[in-house]
Amino acid sequence: MNSALPLPPRSKIATVRDAFFSGLLLVAPLVVTVWAFYKIISLIGGTFRPVFFYSIEPSASTELTLDLVTTVIVLIVVTILGYLSRDVFGRFFVRLVERALLSIPGVGAVYTSVKQIVDTFGSSSRNQFSKVVMIEFPRPGVWALGFLTNRTQGEMQRKIGRELWTVFVPTTPNPTGGYVLFLPPADIVELEMTIGEGMKLIISGGTFLPPPSRTMTDAASGL
Q1: How far apart are alpha carbons 199 and 48 in whole angstroms?
Q2: pLDDT tens, position by position, 104-154
Q3: Domain total in the chain
Q4: What angle do CA 96, 100, 104 make, to 5 degrees?
Q5: HEC readout, 129-197
Q6: 3-state SS class at 106
Q7: Which domain CATH number covers 163?
Q8: pLDDT digit string, tens, across residues 68-95
């Protein structure tokens, strides 16, 4: 005999509330995406609009259109600069501009800091992260996600007298900060997820989990 009492019927207010939050979860990503693009267009357009449309005084109805056109122009200019930077003249021009910026007090320090961050996490330098790994950090029994950056043996390894690999452990949700650790290979667990998936996992605070690897899927299915 089932002695469990039947659940009371849900009220209409609770049903409407649940439907509202379900709809909010569906709409929120779209709203945030549109808001982010609007802010980017306003920032780029508002900053560079006087350069391209200095003779036009925008009204409230045309300001967004001019900002959008300005943003497209800036993106085209940046793309052209990217192509030009590949040849000798382009590299010479970039170095010339960098020297001019570094000679300005205050501006040079800001430029150097931003450039280091971009170079560290740009597409070219990101290839230096050869593997996503797991290590016990900051204490045994607690695991942290990191990126294997180097297997080369240098002064640190010679002074310690054992093989040590270099692992960068970024912070969440801002991966530009973190810790550089030197660990023996036996203490490093290499993962099969890609560098991009590892970055998404860290930036999302662990809410993004990449799909299981092919090896794990085959093992679970008994193949």
Answers
A1: 31
A2: 777 677 777 777 666 655 555 455 677 899 999 999 999 999 999 888 777
A3: 1
A4: 165
A5: CCEEEEEECCCCCCEEEEEEEECCCCHHHHHHCCCCEEEEEECCCCCCCEEEEEECHHHCEECCCCHHH
A6: coil
A7: 2.30.30
A8: 888 888 888 888 877 777 776 667 777 7
